[in-house]
Amino acid sequence: MGRGSGQPHGGLARAAGKHAVIKLIGLIVNPVAGMGGTVGLKGTDGEMFERAVELGAEPVSPGRVAEFLAHTGSLESEELVAAPGAMGADHLKEAGLAHFVVGKLPGHPTAEDTRIIASAMVDLGVDLIVFAGGDGTARDMADAIGTRIPVVAIPSGVKVYSSVFAYSPRAAAELLDAFVQGADLAEEEVLDIDEKAFREGRVDARHYGYLIVPQDNRLLQGGKESSGIGRMTAEARAALAGAIIDSMSADTLYLLGSGTTMRMLANELGIEKTLLGIDAVVNRQLIERDLNEQGILELLEQYGKAAIVVTPLGGNGFIFGRGNKQFTPAVLRRVGLENILILADRNKLQKLKALHVDTGDPALDDEMTGYIDVYVGPDHRKMMRVK
User: Fold this and answer.
1) Class assignment of domain 15-214?
2) Residue 128 to residues 55, 179, 182, 211, 293: CA-CA distances in angstroms?
3) What DSSP assignment string belongs to 271-307?
4) What distance in Å separates the CA atoms of residue 296 and residue 311, rounded to the nearest whole number?
5) Domain boundaries of the chain, sorted by first residue
6) Which of 107, 124, 156, 221 has a CB 3.0–4.6 Å from the CB of 33, allowing a cystine?
7) Across 141-150, 215-224, 272-281, least confident range
8) What pLDDT, on the 0 to 100 scale, is given for residue 40?
């Protein structure tokens, strides 16, 4: 098959010898997904995309898709179909992978383009669609294809809470390889995140639908669960927060991550916490709220010592890469991996087999794998694996 537009040779039978059937794999990319994360925005929907560009946000999806393509061993032996331009074909062309294009882009890519192209791919007889984006893109896919064919979801958005997503682009590549090799399939949930509530600092997640994915719990992130903080006593909350507060050093910049556990810590400090943002504390006083990457880097220039305090995301155990994309690889390297403090209650940890990172820098992710102490109370820590 030649590169670029055309029809898949051999029609839709795609037989390859006696023992294999060539799969027809589709690719759809949301080119603006994730751009709001590093600049502290809560998404890139509508006018938020223009605001992200004004703040200097750079595209995230190209790097995520490139990492996926670099780690899958399946695509060179399969037939590929892609959405036009930045929505798919450009990425395959860059990787030197032969493909043909479905659909047209009359202007800036929209959610409707995603739905139309996904439906067209199903009509064409595609066996599986790989898509890159966040929860909004997953909802578009659920609208367009439902459970008619399976998908592999590359996490690339600001909001990535649905359980259909792989842990990382590399995990997505492994899922595709598993599909080609005949893995079982399963339904996973797509969540509807209330956009207005999210921008106000609240995660209001409701069931939206299902997509079918290759079944491998090692590679799928699982869905977000509500925090168990509400089940803790006031004394336990104070003790848990005290484990961190008592360790705070003078004149050191502490960057508090997002989530209700971090809000609990802020309450014990007597400060107001941005629930879905990054706040800065020095000498137990709030100095900046809702920071983006640039704001964090500027503060790091001012203070010689710094630490990051985070809590695992309930349900899947992410400490970086979900809900706190302001902690970019540049920020994490500047602070130093030895200066990361993790705070969690025992109930949450009991539900997690491991903690996870997906910073967007594979080399940094590899550096962070291993074991790390998690604060669960005064003088009490639990060793958890990071992968």
Assistant:
1) alpha beta
2) 36, 9, 12, 11, 36
3) ----TTSEEEEETTEEEEEEE-HHHHHHHHHH-S-EE
4) 18
5) 15-214, 229-386
6) 156
7) 215-224
8) 47
